[in-house]
Amino acid sequence: MKTLPDCEHLLLNEQNGVLAITLNRPEVRNAMNLALVNQLMTVFTAIEQVPAIKVVVLRGANGNFCAGGDLKDMANARKAVNAGKDDVKDPFYQLNRAFGQMISQINAAPQVVITLLEGIVLGGGFGLACISDIAIADSQTQFGLPETRLGLPPAQIAPFVVERIGLTQARRIMLTGARFDGVEAKNFGVVHFVSNSNEEMSQLLAQQLAQIQLCAPNANRTTKRIMLSVGKIANKTLLDNAAQDFSMAIQSAEGIEGTNAFIEKRPANWVR
Q1: Residue-wise pLDDT tens digits, 83-103
Q2: What is residue 71's predicted lDDT score, i.e. its pLDDT?
Q3: What are residue 93's phi and psi, to 5 degrees?
Q4: What b/e string do you get for 75-112 counting C-beta neighbours within 10 Å, with b at 16 or more?
């Protein structure tokens, strides 16, 4: 496996095929600046072709998941605009688009991505929750998309929120900047599980990890790619491609091992 990169704003810990990534800017409630965004992309690029890493667990340091975008980055972008250099591309566009590239990359990651949501989950943090495969939230977590109250659109986040919870609910929470807790987030479909303590959150995480370990890594990667193709390409093409994926899988070492393990009533060799 490739050595994981050193990241100033991320804590990384890999054990038994699970990579824990902790957003580590607690002094600003883990708000994302451009450096953190780039570091996340670097990590996900490094593990993209590493089947040994089956799961990524994202959380924030010191009891907060993420306060969204760091307004200091926006202030720096404004200074660059005011400098008026002709050779400088629009820094606001570049800053905003970088976040969209990061969230798109994590959305398409072949690993199962789990978010542990505590404290506050705002703006870009909300976007990360919406692209996770499994989201576990503390019941008291405060969710929201406050961008419109700042005179801004949630530009890169909006498509992922609509895809996660549907247009009807997305309209209300984006156009009012409403705050809501973990229980309501579960009712919306933002999160899958709600906990009432750190211990319960750890138990829920352990249960999900145990279930994921029963699944073959390549089969999970292929399944995720098929799901993310729904609505993006014609259904006939999607099903043709999926049939090719199935044929390759059943003839692969993983597929042969899985079917043999089922027949022989034993755990497959990828089960830890």
Answers
A1: 665 455 788 888 899 999 999
A2: 80
A3: -60, -50
A4: eebeebeeeeeeeeeebeeebbebbbebbebbbebbbb
Q: Where are the alpha helices (DSSP H) in the chain?
A: 34-47, 71-83, 91-107, 124-130, 158-165, 167-176, 182-188, 198-213, 217-229, 235-251, 253-263
DSSP per residue, 246-272: HHHHHHSHHHHHHHHHHHTTS--TT--
Neighbours of 47 (CB within 10 A): 21
- The tens digit of pLDDT for each residue in 233-247 reads 999 999 999 999 999
Torsion of CA 200, 205, 211, 215, to 10 degrees: 180
Q: What is the mean pLDDT of residues 9-30?
A: 97
Nearest alpha carbon to residue 74 among 150, 180, 129, 179: 150
Name the average pLDDT for the chain. 93
Contact (Cβ atoms closer than 8 angstroms) between residue 138 and residue 201: yes
3-state secondary structure of 69: strand
Do 117 and 129 contact (CB within 8 A), yes or no?
Answer: yes
- Tokens of residue 43, six digits: 């990590």
Q: What is the pLDDT of residue 244?
A: 97
Q: How confident is the model at residue 217 (pLDDT cuts 50, 70, 90)?
A: very high
Q: What is the dihedral of CA 56, 61, 67, 69, to 10 degrees?
A: -70
